Amino acid sequence: MNSTLRFAVFLAVVLGIWSLMHAYVLLRVLPLPGLAAPIVRRVLLGMAAFLWASYPLSRIFSHWKPAHALAGLFEWIGACWMGVLFLTLVCLLAADLVTGFGFLFRAWVPSVRWGALASAGLLSIIAVIQAARGPVVNSREIELHDLPARYDGLVAVQISDLHVGDMLGKHWLEGVVRQVEALHPDIIFMTGDLVDGDAGPVEPLVPVLKKLKAPLGVWAVTGNHEFYAGLKRSVALFERAGFHVLADRWEAAAPGLVIAGVDDLTARRQFGLNHDPVEKALGGHPKTATIYLCHSPLQAGRAADLGADLMLSGHTHDGQIWPFQYVVRLFYPYVAGFYRIGGMTLVVSRGTGTWGPPMRLFKRSEIVRLILVGPRTGARAHSLPSR
Fold first, then answer.
1. pTM value?
2. Which of 70, 163, 222, 378 has the most CB atoms within 10 Å of its CB?
3. Which residues contact 211 (CB under 8 A, 6 or more apart)?
């Protein structure tokens, strides 16, 4: 199957799920008392059709310059609706489980479903407020067995999944840069999905990205959205910002400290690019402290076997909107946080920005601050206070 056909199948699956979500909600909402009048049903069906089409239309209009402003409006409407729809579906499903999908407590079913709709509205408001608060800084101390003594206490900062574009723009990005600057990092890692759907809106922000500086450099790998936006154009953007881009290779950041990285494994799977990039990135690297960057938390065991001491990933967003992380876990066993795999520590960021809905439910976006220590301390993934 060629890459075009693979992407077409992927798109068809996504649109199919999107349609089923709308159908389920409509089947539960339309029979409710107060909504039985034909005019009300026609209005609801019209609204549902418009909201169903809004996000796909934003993707279409984004490639047509005269409709760029319209694309931004449709994207904002569609993205917000995506989050509201998901929470509405979850709450209505919970109501169905309580009422045996309408076969139990029949007299109470309408009230329970109205309560589910009210709950979805409240959770949506909370999620919008949570996302608007911006990323929190989470700190952790990590032991690297071969870390040279002169780097003991080195401060590394990981940012991931910024998804800069029409939804998250210059003002938001400047705030993230200020947060990173305040941490005084010795080295910065950007683990993919800096770009959202199109590199165009991000290219004017290169001067902002250039403010991300550290003595040992800013190191980056691509995410799946860089593939969607155009890999060459996205990599060129990274390089103009002064990032060291690691595409299936390793490089010494300093004597005794190796950084390796791969282009995103999820996008590779989607486009049928199935060669062994992990081997290519880590094969033959010096047997010294090695940090491996991989946007998607996949093949972690393989990276550990090839000698990585620390793997930094993102992509999952920790589900972004609870309880979506349980769906994410079906595809990515390492959803968010810190894991020990053999002799390697895996860090999966829940993302610095948001994708799609400008929402975060119960867990905020994050910037990860890592204090790297040598084995003399005996520390292993020792928690430090968040700042």
1. 0.90
2. 222
3. 177, 181
